[in-house]
Amino acid sequence: MRMFSSDKWRKSGFAKLREGKRVQAIVLDGRFWQDVSICLRASQPLVKVLRLVDSDEKPAMPFLYFEMIQAKEKIKSNFNNVEKRYKPILKIIDKRWEDQMSRPFHYAAYWLNPQIHHSHGMGFNYNDPKVKVALYECVSRVAKDDEEKFRIMEQLH
Q1: Which domain of life does this protein belong to (predicted)?
Q2: Alpha carbons 90 and 85: distance in angstroms, whole number
Q3: What is the pLDDT at residue 45?
Q4: pTM for the full predicted model
Q5: pLDDT at position 4, please?
Q6: Which of the listed residues 57, 99, 104, 140 has the most CB atoms within 10 Å of its CB?
């Protein structure tokens, strides 16, 4: 902001251009910075998930669904748990997840990940119907017959 009150800015050619004046007006407008704050509070948790997915340090699959749950909880917290402030953002995230990322193996990897079982007991939900159905779908794909499918499911419960 100090940039626009400096002699260097006033003497620059940009300060006299229509585009320069427009940029100055935007940057000095308090609403712009409120919007930037909203964007940062919404995007910061998602950037963490993207870094996980883009990392070569550890496989992301077993953690992706859990990290998305955590990211959504962090977004709620970043908006002081005021539903009308975070709900539109989570609606977009949920729609994208369901359209592009929601696959049975994400849920199954979440359910089968022992690190999540032991480290994040509160975040782990055995009874989430989506997770259970996805786990069953994955078992159905890998089991050679109904007997094997039954034995696998019996061990998982």
Answers
A1: Eukaryota
A2: 10
A3: 97
A4: 0.70
A5: 87
A6: 104
**Which H, E and C letters describe the chain, residue by residue?**
CHHHHCHHHHHCCHHHCHHHHHHHHHHHCHHHHHHHHHHHHHHHHHHHHHHHHHCCCCCCHHHHHHHHHHHHHHHHHHCCCCHHHHHHHHHHHHHHHHHHHCCHHHHHHHHHCHHHHHHCCCCCCCCCHHHHHHHHHHHHHHCCCHHHHHHHHHHHC
Question: 3 near 14, Cβ under 8 Å?
Answer: no
**Predicted confidence (pLDDT) per residue in 51-102, tens digit:** 988 887 777 777 888 888 899 999 999 999 999 999 999 999 999 888 877 6
With b for 16 or more beta-carbon neighbours within 10 A and e for fewer, the 76-96 pattern comes to: bebbeeeeebbeebbeebeee
**Dist. CA 28–CA 149, nearest whole Å:** 63
Q: What is the percent of the chain where pLDDT is above 90? A: 41
Phi, psi angles (nearest 5°) of residue 82: -90, 105
| Region of 102 on the Ramachandran plot (φ > 0 left; ψ -120 to 50 alpha; else beta) | beta
